[in-house]
């Protein structure tokens, strides 16, 4: 039986093939089944230049000199934007399968507020 390493835990765990649920295989970056469907659910189109403009404006920089994709999970894509004044912004773009944008963002804000409560 093949062994699948997952990105969901720090230590790699091995699963027997019959025990694996649809998860991203870390070794090859492919879905074990229904790959086209899984990729379609996570496909999001966004305006890169507009994202750079908003990030630049929010930090108070003049321009974005670098934008690098950090990671892509089941529900989000993360980007690191470096500005001309060496400031850094992290941008999170939610995938369509994450749920309604208002609810997912409200949930994250509530979690951060709870975590930072004295």
Shape: globular
- The amount of beta strand, in percent, is 15-25%
Q: What Rg is obtained from the alpha carbons, in whole angstroms?
A: 18 Å
Please summarize the sheet with the most strands: 3 strands, antiparallel
Distance between the first and last residues' Cα:
49 Å
SSE run? EEHHEEEH
Helix/strand class: alpha+beta
Please report the number of helical segments.
3
Helical fraction: 25-40%
- Major β-sheet strand ordering: 3-4-5
GO cellular component, one term: mitochondrion
Describe the structure.
One of its GO terms (cellular component) is mitochondrion. The chain is α+β, with helices and mostly antiparallel strands and 118 residues long. It has 2 domains: 1-33, no CATH class; 48-115, no CATH class. The chain is built from 3 helices and 5 strands. The strands form 2 sheets. The chain has a 3-stranded antiparallel sheet with strand order 3-4-5. A two-stranded antiparallel ribbon has the order 1-2. The chain is globular, with a radius of gyration of 18 Å.
Topology record:
Blueprint: E1 24-25, E2 30-31, H1 35-42, H2 48-59, E3 64-72, E4 76-83, E5 88-94, H3 101-115
Antiparallel strand pairs: 1-2, 3-4, 4-5
């Amino acid at each position: 039986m093949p062994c699948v390493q997952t990105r969901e835990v720090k230590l790699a765990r091995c699963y027997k093939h019959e025990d694996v649920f649809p998860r991203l295989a870390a070794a090859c970056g492919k879905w074990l089944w229904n790959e086209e469907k899984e990729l379609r659910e996570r496909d999001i189109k966004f305006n890169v230049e507009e994202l750079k403009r908003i990030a630049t404006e929010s930090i108070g920089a003049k321009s974005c000199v670098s934008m690098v994709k950090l990671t892509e999970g089941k529900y989000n894509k993360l980007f690191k934007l470096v500005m001309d004044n060496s400031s850094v912004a992290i941008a999170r773009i939610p995938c369509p399968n994450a749920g309604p944008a208002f609810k997912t963002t409200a949930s994250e804000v509530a979690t951060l507020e709870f975590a930072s409560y004295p």
